[in-house]
Design goal:
The structure holds two protein chains of two kinds. Chain A is of the alpha+beta class. Chain A contains eleven helices and eight strands. In chain B, the strands form three sheets. In chain B, strands 1, 4, 5, 6, 7 and 13 form a six-stranded mixed beta sheet that branches. A five-stranded mixed beta sheet of chain B has the order 10-9-11-8-12, sandwiched between helices. Chain B has a two-stranded antiparallel sheet with strand order 2-3. Chain B is an alpha/beta fold. In chain B, helix 3 crosses helix 9 and helix 3 packs antiparallel against helix 13. Chain B folds into two domains: about 220 residues, Periplasmic binding protein-like II (D-Maltodextrin-Binding Protein, domain 2, 3-Layer(aba) Sandwich); about 100 residues, D-Maltodextrin-Binding Protein, domain 2. The chains are: A alpha+beta, B alpha/beta. Chains A and B meet through helix 1, helix 4, helix 10 and helix 11 of A and helix 1, helix 4, helix 5, strand 9 and helix 6 of B.
Chain lengths: ~375, ~350
């Protein structure tokens, strides 16, 4: 792309400034109008006590925390869910795309069935179906499946949580030191040293695990206490988003693959690279480059679609902020504007990151 | 960066739209209702017994009957109402911006809403309070035994706050799972995702009967909040606020005075009780004080009956959702809280 000349740039900047000015003026006007009608307005509410709890947070949050912190906690939940779903969807999508182009008809049919079935039903329906399927399949807490300290029931999968003791910490430090020494000095020292190092690493690793304190999940009272939990709402939301998006990602990748001239693959094979290496080294990089722009818009869709979380009871930004906070404070304009601005910012960040990748050496020049 | 301009412009446009909408609401709601020929009544989406459309799209329920009463007070016809479903998230904005003339959808009267959102609450059509439903198999006799429970509830209501307050005050731990709709909450509770289902007791009662096995569940005795639910109007139009408030008062007074839909005409013609005569417009000019016909209250009772008749039709033993009228929702003279100031 030709870099825009200076005049075009300044015109662009002026347009941005004008739009921003209009937006700010509109916001100020709206706030004034609301105040004139006896409606509380402004962002001061963010410092007030929220008063409600959130069932799943990455940061410490309770009912005495502020609305601002609730916003942050919910935002992190949205980012976590979207990020995981994007990674999973890309992996599944790539596999399905390769399947759709496979030489064996049965595999092609399987890939196609996946795409058509998933792509042509509403995401909300898939989300609810998966959620209630999971809840129906797993037992209530008192009849949990128990296996090696792991508890599985419809409240989640509970695994023992490690807490690092001083002794375990030393073992881990020793392990890290060994890894560095090996990497710097012993890498070329021959098989005997390598074998000894591996044995020492295994021993140190086992010692660290042994010396850690494990907080075991156990059934106490109404629920499981202790351990770390993977709750069904989170797992289902990530899975459903990944499965749904993967269908679109697969088609995007497939079009990317088809955009690579056939001669490229043939040339790879002729060089004796073999099928897998030809795919990985020759075809895939070019396919990804072609697929990147539409892929970015699929990723943006994941972030927006994650706002369906409230349907399966997961506390994402839309649920905690766009619904609960809005209802409690009644400050619809501020809350909706903030929520919209956040989705806009995340989506633009994803689009921007993809563009950067595209412009960097990885993405290569445009075809 | 090229996507920012249209998005910001959209945001700006919606803010201007909101501001202009909010600014252009004229003070005289009654005039615009008359001009339009019907009342825009903001109800909820679906809450059997209070507001619910049937398969033909006809609305019924206690809150719907209040819209009908208001229509009768203004037009002498209970059917000059347009029902607009208002979601919990959008309802106040819909009222503030003038999309609806009032909300009649079990909105809970709170100070921050009354004083902070430009709203004016007109009275109470139903006294409620938040409670807990659990499986009988838990053997819980009181909410104080729910330490460690997983609690399902719905977003966009006052219940999340009451729940947090109650568990914190009693030093109990809990995990909330918050859904978007009541149906999703109930489905998750039935699937045993949670030990407890919490919301207003009227809803718990309504939902209990529709569970797969109603006998396996129990509503615990504690009521952890006070919910005074009733119609709401915009602040700043005293005439309209008076019409809504006194229509509700007329319904309550009619029950107290023993005036029913069937007897109202005859009572109006023959009663010697001065309060009855003033209420029904046989004496004095009370209706005209609000810019209505003098027979407004008589028209209301003729159309929907008195408060007791409204309650029985919707929440009585033969109504859609039977809720025994044994607590606060009785007349003051029978030990309840329903009380109308005097028609003088």
């Amino acid at each position: 792309m030709r870099p825009p000349d200076r005049r075009a740039r300044s015109v662009q900047l002026l347009i941005y400034l004008a739009v921003a000015a209009v937006a700010i003026a509109a916001a100020l006007f709206a706030i004034e109008t609301l105040r004139a009608r006896g409606i509380k307005a402004g962002f001061g509410f963010l410092w007030n006590t929220a008063g409600f709890d959130i069932g799943f947070t990455l940061i410490a949050f309770d009912a005495t925390s502020s609305y601002g912190l609730a916003f942050l906690a919910a935002l992190l939940n949205t980012l976590l869910v979207s990020g995981l779903a994007i990674v999973l969807a890309t992996a599944i999508g790539l596999v399905v795309a390769v399947a759709r182009l496979a030489p064996i008809p049965a595999i092609r049919a399987a890939g196609r069935t996946y795409v058509e079935a998933v792509r042509n039903t509403p995401l909300l329906l898939q989300l609810l179906a998966l959620y209630f399927l999971v809840l129906g399949a797993l037992p209530p807490p008192r009849q949990s499946f128990t296996f090696a300290g792991v508890l599985v029931n419809n409240r989640g999968i509970f695994v023992p949580a490690p807490s690092i003791t001083a002794a375990a910490g030393y073992a881990l430090l020793a392990l890290a030191a060994l890894a560095i020494v090996y990497r710097l000095y012993l890498r070329r020292a021959g098989p005997i040293v390598a074998g000894l190092s591996a044995a020492a690493a295994a021993a140190l690793g086992a010692a660290a695990l042994w010396l850690m304190q494990w907080d075991l999940p156990a059934l106490r009272g109404l629920n499981v206490r202790g351990g770390m939990a993977l709750v069904p709402e989170f797992a289902v939301l990530v899975t459903a988003l990944a499965i749904y998006t993967a269908a679109f990602v697969a088609e995007t990748f497939r079009s990317g693959f088809l955009a690579v001239p056939q001669g490229q693959g043939e040339a790879g094979l002729a060089l004796g690279l073999g099928r897998a290496r030809t795919l990985r080294l020759v075809v895939l990089p070019q396919a990804v480059r072609a697929a990147l722009p539409p892929l970015a818009s699929q990723y943006v869709n994941v972030i927006k679609a994650s706002s369906l979380a409230a349907a399966v009871g997961f506390p994402d930004l839309m649920q905690v902020f766009g619904k609960t906070t809005l209802n409690q404070t009644g400050q619809a304009v501020e809350v909706i504007a903030m929520t919209m601005a956040v989705y806009l910012a995340i989506s633009m960040a994803v689009a921007g990151a993809t563009q950067l990748y595209e412009r960097s050496g990885q993405g290569g020049a445009r075809a | 960066m090229k996507n920012i301009a249209p998005a910001l412009a959209g945001l700006a446009a919606s803010m201007i739209g909101f501001a202009v909408g909010a600014g252009s609401v004229s003070a005289a709601t009654l005039d615009s209702v008359r001009e339009r020929g019907f009342v825009n009544c903001g109800v909820g989406e679906n809450f059997p017994g209070f507001f619910a459309p049937d398969s033909a799209g006809k609305w019924s329920g206690l809150d719907v009957d209040f819209c009908r009463a208001l229509s009768a007070a203004i037009f002498n016809d209970p059917d000059k109402v347009k029902y607009l479903p208002a979601t919990p998230a959008a309802r106040f904005a819909q009222l503030q911006s003038g999309q609806v003339d009032l909300l009649s959808r079990s909105v809970t009267w709170t100070m921050s809403r009354d004083a902070g959102l430009g709203l004016s609450f007109s009275g109470v059509t139903f006294f409620d309070g938040q409670g807990f439903m659990v499986r009988k198999a838990l053997n819980a006799k009181s909410a104080k035994e729910l330490d460690g429970a997983t609690v399902c509830t719905q977003t966009g209501t006052t219940t999340e706050l009451n729940l947090a307050d109650y568990f914190r005050a009693n030093n109990l731990k809990y995990t909330p799972v918050v859904f978007e709709t009541t149906d999703q909450v109930v489905a998750a509770y039935e699937a045993q995702r949670c030990d407890v289902y919490t919301t207003d007791k009227s809803t718990l009662a309504a939902r209990l009967g529709k569970l797969k096995d109603p006998a396996a569940h129990v509503i615990l005795p504690e009521t952890i909040s006070k919910a005074a639910n009733g119609p709401v109007v915009r602040q700043g139009d005293g005439q309209w606020a008076n019409i809504v408030r006194w229509t509700l008062n007329a319904l309550i007074a009619a029950e107290e005075l023993g005036i029913t839909a069937a007897t109202v005409e005859q009572v109006k013609a023959s009663s010697k009780d001065p309060e009855v005569r003033r209420l029904l417009g046989a004496d004095g000019e009370l209706g005209k004080l609000m810019g209505l016909d003098n027979a407004w209250a008589a028209n209301v009772v003729k159309a929907v009956g008195n408060y007791g008749e409204m309650y029985d039709r919707n929440l009585g033993p033969k109504g859609t959702v039977p809720i025994p009228r044994d607590g606060l929702n009785r007349l003051w003279s029978k030990g309840g809280l329903l009380f109308s100031p005097s028609f003088q």
